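Subject: design request, 141 residues
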């Protein structure tokens, strides 16, 4: 694994420590690698109205959007697990997050690599593998 991916996974793991997950007890961290080498990270943010929960990947992408950096996103790393056992197994983005990553893939014209990290290593999937036959901006034309 490259040093840059290691750095990205470390940032995702650190972000998971800041998860606000009092209902599920499941902590997730996500980190985005930008083209200039900087990293934007985030954690899941739950709500007493459970369905309003925001996943770590979604919060990270919203942060990048708010900073005007959506078009600089090159890669995403995600890691999670029960509180105190982050990385015990691999986490792949939920369906809603895959659709949100699809928007980034269209903006960047790139099949974003998603690094699903765990204590034993990292499984890397391209978005097209996670969300084949995706609905996207092209469908609106
Ligand atoms: N979660 C994420 O943050 N990302 C995912 O890809 C899967 C699930 C969060 C949502 C919720 O706070 C907790 O994990 C349990 O589902």
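Subject: RE: design request

Done. Sequence follows.
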């Amino acid at each position: 694994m490259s040093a840059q991916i290691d750095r990205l996974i470390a940032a995702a793991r650190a972000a998971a420590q800041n998860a606000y997950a009092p209902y599920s007890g499941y902590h997730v961290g996500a980190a985005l690698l930008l083209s200039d080498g900087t990293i934007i990270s985030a954690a899941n943010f739950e709500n007493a109205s459970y369905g309003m929960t925001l996943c770590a990947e979604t919060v990270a992408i919203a942060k990048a959007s708010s900073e005007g950096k959506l078009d600089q996103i090159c890669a995403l790393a995600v890691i999670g697990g029960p509180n105190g056992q982050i990385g015990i197994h691999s986490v792949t983005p939920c369906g809603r997050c895959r659709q949100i990553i699809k928007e980034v893939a269209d903006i960047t014209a790139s099949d974003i690599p998603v690094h699903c990290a765990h204590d034993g290593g990292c499984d890397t999937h391209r978005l097209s593998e996670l969300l084949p036959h995706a609905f996207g901006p092209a469908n609106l034309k």
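Strands lie at 26-34, 39-43, 73-82, 113-118, 121-126.
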